[in-house]
Amino acid sequence: MSRLWEDAVGILETASIQQEPVGSDFAILVDSRKGLRIVDAAGWRLDAIQTEYQAGTAFLVKRTSTSVQVEAQSGLDRCSLRTTLSSGALAALTGGIAHHLIHPCALLSELGS
Are 39 and 24 in contact (CB under 8 A)? Predict the structure, then answer.
């Protein structure tokens, strides 16, 4: 597994649990000296923002009300990951844990409190 892919997965996982406003697009840019910059990326394409900031590695994170997408590029390596966000009362109650992994009594005790 490539380092780019591992980093993209970590960013996707983190962005998926954050309670950011809808439409919060940002880029994580890494320069040749391993300097890190996080910038607003609304309206940017990955290759354009990477060129504009002269980043060796770039991660573009796009969040909607229903999903999070991470595009990543470093040199010739490129990947794109996407996950669907849980929503609704059950997800809020369970913290996003799949409902079949929770014992029914645990849910009832949460509802009763």
Answer: no
